[in-house]
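Checklist before submission:
- one chain only
- standard amino acids only
- sequence pasted in full

Submission:
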Amino acid sequence: MNYDFKQSPFSETLLTSVFVGFVATILCLIYNIIFRESTGFELSDAINVSTLIFGVNILFVIIGVVHFLLIKNFKRGEVFFIALLIVITLLGIWGAESVHRTADAVQNHEFRQLLLGTVLIIAVGAIVFIPLLAHNKYFHDHVV
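Returned file contents:
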């Protein structure tokens, strides 16, 4: 967008992460709908429309702040950011695989699949698209 003023690096990074967060939220919602329709999975206390919309977007605001702080304070901040998110993603995958949601084995398995897919969508958005778009001049000129 054309502004009469230059945006700060913080606002550019934060707006980039919020944009990626909106896209990730939409993808998580689509995955949620398709998964539930194809499996008949009905438990919705933990993963539902509200938690996806608010949780994913709040998470991406936090990720954006962390990204900014790392690239501002460290020479190889981008590498630290990616490494940190890979570790967090691996912990998230491990946690998703070890969740025990209910006594029903089928529903436990389905919940793990739903959670794992959501974790992977968020991880790809954060690890790949935030660093990619944070340095994209066209994206900053026309979107942010």
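Reviewer check: The chain has one domain: 16-142.
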